[in-house]
Here is the input.
Amino acid sequence: MQIYLPIAEMSVNVFLILGMGGAVGFLSGLFGVGGGFLMTPLLIFIGVPPAVAVGTEANQIVASSVSGVLAHWRRGNVDLKMGIVLTVGGFIGSSLGVWLFALLRGLGQIDLVISLCYVIFLGIVGGLMLVESIRSMRRRKSATPQRGKLHKHTWVHGLPFKMRFHRSKLYISAILPLSVGFFVGILSAIMGVGGGFIMVPAMIYLLGMPTVVVVGTSLFQIIFVTANVTFLQAYANQTVDIFLALLLLAGAVIGAQFGAKAGARLHGEQLRGLLAIMVLMVCGKLMLDLLIEPSDLYSIGLQH
Amino acid sequence: MKRWPTIRFGLAALAAIGLMMSARADQPLVADLSEHLVGITTGFSGASVLLFGAIEDEGEVAVVVRGPARDLVMHRKSRVLGVWANTNSMTFRAAPGYYAVAASGPLEEIARPRVLARNEIGIDNLKLRLPLNLASPNVAKTWRDALVRNQERAGLYHSEVQPVSFLGTRLFRARLELPANVPTGTYKVQVFLLKNRRVVSAQSTPLIVSRVGVEAEVFNFAHNYSAYYGLIAIVVALTAGWLANAAFKKS
Here is the structure.
């Protein structure tokens, strides 16, 4: 069954879109990730213009983050104060990101920048995760629990504007979460992702937040940042396709149910290893596309 | 569903007979389309429009369909630090968004080269303009070929000449295929009557491709009230996310 998407201006098969939503939903349920980093490249791959893919995916992430954050909220796993500080940085970053996006689109460089961002960040995050999960699998076998110092004092703690975050048991400079939010916000707007895959490690390793509040707080701020991207992309570029977002969401909701069930049967380290491999595969595919000579060196850009 | 084309063709044939009668009266060429409005609806996956007509006495017929003109930016990639990136670009002024030709015979047999060139019949005669000061002739040709190649891949330009078939010696018809990604706007369908490889008569008729119904409303709303559209998109997503969570909890 074909459906014509009014904003993407293309005819797509409904079941293909539902299936894509379902498959990505399954993986995000399995690994507990947002899935934007898989969906946006997939949308571009089936021919959705990059601008529409990014704007629409931001819209879908708003929905999936709301549905995800509610469970964490009930369990009290959201650090509201930290979430708000991250959101402030995220708002500024994502606004700048949308502006950069429009600028790069006009220059005909947006496809390249999107691909480069994916290759770099997926490469780094996937690589680190793989190393980490291999290491922890080995550690489990040798069974010598290593424990670092509870609190390390570095230059980071010398920064001004200190704030107390009760829920995270932290007393750190507000500049830190602000800049993390800002940086992830830019990437969120350009890559069409929530940015959880960067936000979560940054919260753990850079801010030193306890793991229990990390996912909930990350989802909390993702709602606002992707809502901002949705609004700005819709307002400035008219590139948010609500129909496409809802179709993707419908598939993703169902897929995530099955994914979460399948995930319960696997070990944490195994899951992390598998996720790392998947992230690296997406990264590798995009890298090859950049490195291999395209079949046609010429392409059509903007039309007006 | 399958019966529709037959019925449509029946109606078209009836109309054509009517046209032929009037053709006999004074005009050497009359032609019309089975529909002048192609509506892009939610289920739109391309359209097929029937062109039919009649000529007074024998001759050849060529049809040119041009989509709405717009400026079009083309990019060329080259290797930068090992990565393929767009490094050069050219803007074609007023390139048609769609181009197709139909004819009752091979173009070079039914018309003189100058006739083809003047009327832009055939993809090689289609004038695609690059700013002259920017490109030498052979460079311009490379860019032009690339544009045609890209548009053909998208199904928007057709270098192959489609058939115009005659029913007897007077009635003719041709089928115009529009893919799902056709640009919206006003198309120009030109019909040429050729004798001794010259144009003896020509007729131009418009074809409008337009979003209709929900498609039109959503598109117009998104463009005219983009701030509200953005807010609605957020509210819809919040509601959908909340509903999804509620559905999760029950199961």
Remarks:
- Residues 76 and 188 of chain B are 30 Å apart (CA to CA).
